[in-house]
Specification:
It is built from no helices and 15 strands. By secondary structure, the chain is mainly beta. The model has no long low-confidence stretch (mean pLDDT 94).
Length: 172
């Protein structure tokens, strides 16, 4: 069962044919700190399978991993996600992992064109136009968490641009 009274579930994303679901599952630790991991369920015989936690290569111990966005290509998938894992640039960074032959490759930070010393969150990748949309509290903006976009993919990015008004305002 995907829903649980013991966890907070959010940030759901599907593969292209809606047969796989990846989402954030969070719970509070003994210090009331929220800790999140990515989980997966598959749609089989008209029902969602029991969720399984993605492997440790994605859900690094001691970090939170949230906000998945899955991009499907003919022979592989790319999972963009947000994490405060070790060796990042700032607080929460955007990372990606290639999923091929039923295996997630070691995650790669999307780099300093996008990630800053602040927090970059909510990745959404437009595969048709090759543009990553995300929010940041550090890139030059109008408010605290503005929406930005950047052409490119994985580790090769162009120039980050602010979406401007009416998408952004002086509020979060």
């Amino acid at each position: 069962m995907i829903n649980s009274h013991k966890t907070f579930n959010s940030n759901f994303c599907f593969n292209d044919d809606k047969s796989e679901l990846i989402y954030s599952r969070c719970k509070r630790d003994e210090n009331s700190e929220l800790h999140c991991d990515l989980w997966k369920s598959s749609f089989v015989k008209n029902a969602w399978t029991k969720p399984v936690k993605l492997p440790d290569v994605i859900n690094e111990e001691g970090s939170s991993t949230v906000q998945p966005f899955l991009v499907t290509y003919p022979n592989y998938q790319v999972l963009y996600f947000v994490s405060n894992r070790k060796n990042g640039i700032g607080g929460f960074d955007i990372w990606y992992s290639v999923y091929k032959n039923n295996r997630f490759e070691y995650p790669v930070n999307v780099g300093s064109v996008i990630n800053t010393e602040g927090n970059e969150v909510t990745p959404f990748y437009d595969k048709n136009n090759g543009i990553l949309y995300f929010s940041s509290d550090e890139h030059l903006g109008i408010g605290d968490y503005d929406i930005f976009y950047v052409p490119g993919s994985m580790s090769h990015w162009g120039e980050v641009s602010n979406m401007g008004v009416p998408f952004n305002s002086n509020y979060n």
